[in-house]
Design goal:
Number of helices: 19
Number of strands: 27
Mean pLDDT: 84
Strand order of the largest sheet: 7-12-8-9-10-11
Structural class: alpha+beta
Low-confidence stretches: 289-293, 508-519
Length: 681
């Protein structure tokens, strides 16, 4: 219940503009300005209760309490580590990021790349912070998280061993911005241990809110060098990863490349070498001091080298692009704004937060019986790109689709790794799942936080279906759809409405007497039915119905029925109300039998959506996600009584809302007392 309210609160904050980079959401409801002022007023240094200087903030396995890495660890504030500490000393740059013992070079590579863009750096790392003026032991950093910006507060107690920082550090011993940034990112992801292992693109997107592209060299586009050159000229952030040899760890090979390491790409230039054009790539590893360029660089004309202003120092290394393709295996590009994705155009972005839920829409990949239950997002491509053409010169639309799985890194120390995710794009038409080939899709399911690709599609209506590879895998996701022209994207089935079945007391029965609720038992010849009377009467009827397998209705379900029908607050049903209820139950019983095609006495959870629609309830995915754990059993099925209880409860809630919505605006306003009275029904 509380989690649902929290999500609704977040949605309302987002609608009010909270979560933009200028007005970030307060992570864990911690307000930096308020906490800072409180510490100054009390003369105390901030201690963060949500990410304390304790074992819980380190981890459970590699950094667990029995790990050798944490033996002798002491949490210290910067002033206890170095005299006259500085937040930033002579500007933040890539030399400020030196790896410690955590194994998060992917993150440090991203931090080093971030320093190449001052605007982005100053947004993530607010520069007004200091160990001097109004110091209170509290710092804050801003990160992008699945469509919104959040402000993360930390105290400045850092893990040390023998008086030295255990994790990231700066080449300047008195500088601490990078160590505190790492701590804030660890807090965002649950622990320091959660930061072990990853790809730089993940952090780059969290630092910028940018759009990512990832290219593996075995299937990279032929114009990859040009893509990299254009991206770097557009000030996109680019990283690369070197190959690894099994069991060798990080070793330096003859080309001065460290195996199994992440690098920042900082330049891509074509130069003349012995009369022919040579493609050279410029990169560096975070925290290094000295680099060596490839031999070809020394033979390039000095005037051209001066013009390019690249001197191969501070850890910077050049090599021919052909050699780069041998030593490395992947590059990651983070476009900092939509105009850089595919050219100098105005691009449109639509984002959706969704969830794969067991028993609702965790359908798995194509070919699975439950594939059709996956979330679906409709895209209407009406206006073709200015210049894009497809087969036969037909006008087309460029579409970039990015799918992220959320919060998996936080669960990594508990053994919940990334799921394999992907998506399909279908052109809409009758029975398009069964009869039509997908119009586009990812080539492979990947266990990355994000999978993305560009597509060139003819104008028309499409549906995007994000999936996990296996069915019944639960995860939250964030889907971004980017197009040159307005794509009019929306989530299918996002509306909420009910067309309720309302029988009259004297209407004819829907089922035959031997199958339904008709009869002349003494229990039915009452003028008034208490909850116990109702249970006895209905259960006798159920026993006569051979088509329904049921142990009968419980008192709790019968109370729900009385709550639905009792308009005069007597706590009982009149004979007329009882008759109407019986007709309603007959209607719902017929739906249950239609959906229970194998006559098992239960219906599968993934069929619940169809059953609800037949009963007149059109519910969005979020509502169905709440219904499943309440009414569906552990084996993902729902029996007859729980099915009826669910429908009765839904009908009660819809009727309550309609009564309270006097002006039919679709909104109601309640006092706390009114809310409690309504919710406790």
């Amino acid at each position: 219940m509380a989690s649902v309210a929290a999500q609704l609160a977040r949605d309302r904050c987002s609608a009010l503009g909270i979560g933009s980079n200028k007005n970030p959401a307060k992570y864990l409801n911690q307000d930096y300005e308020e906490l800072w002022a409180q510490c100054l007023a009390s003369g105390t240094l901030f201690e963060d209760p949500t990410f304390p200087a304790a074992q819980s903030s380190l981890g459970v396995n590699d950094l667990g309490p029995k790990s050798e890495k944490v033996q002798g660890l002491i949490w210290k504030r910067p002033a206890e580590i170095k005299e006259n500490p500085q937040f930033i000393n002579e500007g933040a740059n890539r030399a400020d990021v030196r790896q410690g013992s955590l194994g998060d070079c992917w993150l440090l590579c991203s931090i080093a790349s971030l320093t190449l863009n001052e605007e982005c750096l100053n947004r993530v790392v607010p520069v007004e912070q200091s160990f001097d003026t109004n110091y209170a032991g509290i710092f804050h950093f801003k990160f992008w998280q699945y469509g919104q910006w959040v402000d993360v507060v930390v105290d400045d107690r850092l893990p040390t061993k023998k008086g030295k920082l255990l994790f990231v550090k700066s080449t300047s011993a008195c500088e601490f911005w990078s160590a505190l940034l790492e701590k804030a990112y660890a807090k965002l992801n649950g622990s320091y241990e959660a930061l072990k292992g990853g790809i730089p693109l993940e952090a780059l997107e969290d630092f910028t809110g940018g759009v990512g592209e990832l290219h593996y060299f075995e299937n990279a586009p032929k114009n990859l060098f040009q893509i990299l050159s254009n991206a770097l000229k557009a000030k996109s952030l680019v990283t690369c990863s070197s190959k690894s040899d099994a069991g060798t760890g990080e070793i330096v090979v003859s080309t001065n490349v460290v195996k199994n390491h992440a690098y920042s790409v900082t330049g891509a230039e074509e130069v003349k070498h012995y009369g022919r054009q040579e493609e050279l790539l410029f990169f560096m590893t975070p925290g290094t001091q000295n680099g060596t360029g490839a031999p070809e660089w020394n033979e390039v004309d000095l005037e051209l080298r001066d013009q390019l202003n690249l001197q191969c120092d501070d850890g910077e290394t050049w090599m021919p692009f052909s050699a780069f393709l041998v030593e490395f295996y992947r590059v990651e590009i983070c476009h900092l704004n939509l105009d850089n994705v595919c050219g100098k155009h105005k691009w449109c972005l639509t984002g959706f937060n969704g969830k794969w839920t067991l028993g609702v829409n965790a359908g798995g990949c194509r070919g699975r019986e439950t594939f059709w239950t996956n979330p679906q997002f409709r895209i209407n491509l009406e206006d073709p790109d200015s210049q894009s053409r497809g087969d036969g010169g037909k006008p087309c639309c460029t579409l970039l689709v990015s799918l992220m799985q959320k919060e998996r890194r936080r669960k990594k120390p508990q053994g919940e790794d990334l799921l394999r995710i992907g998506y399909y794009i279908y052109k809409l038409g009758k029975d398009f799942f069964k009869k039509n080939k997908d119009a586009a899709r990812l080539d492979f399911y990947k266990n990355h936080r994000e999978v993305s690709n560009r597509f060139l599609l003819p104008i028309g209506n499409y549906v995007i279906i994000p999936t996990t590879y296996n069915p019944c895998e639960e995860a939250d996701f964030f889907l971004r759809v980017i197009s040159e022209k307005n794509a009019k994207a929306l989530e299918i089935g996002n509306g909420v409405e009910a067309n309720l079945f309302e029988p009259l007391a004297n209407s004819a029965p829907i089922l035959e007497p031997q199958n339904g609720c008709e009869g002349s038992d003494e229990e039915e010849q009452r003028e008034e039915f208490s909850v116990e009377d109702l249970r006895m009467a209905l259960n006798k009827k159920l026993k006569r119905n051979t088509a329904i397998r049921s142990d009968g209705f419980s008192l709790r379900t019968c109370r729900e029925m009385i709550n639905l029908m009792d308009m005069d607050s007597t706590g009982t049903l009149s004979a007329e109300e009882y008759q109407i209820l019986c007709k309603k139950l007959e209607h719902y019983m017929k739906i249950f039998l239609e959906v229970d095609t194998n006559h098992s006495g239960t219906i599968d959870a993934h069929e619940m959506g169809n059953a609800l629609q037949r009963a007149g309830f059109h519910l969005n995915t979020r509502i169905q996600e709440i219904l499943v754990p309440r009414y569906v059993s552990d084996n993902l099925s729902i029996n007859f009584e729980d099915f009826i209880a669910c429908l009765i409860r839904l009908e009660t809630l819809f009727k309550m809302f309609n009564i309270l919505d006097a002006d039919k605006s679709g909104k109601i306003s309640l006092t706390l007392s009114e809310w409690l009275c309504a919710a406790l029904i």
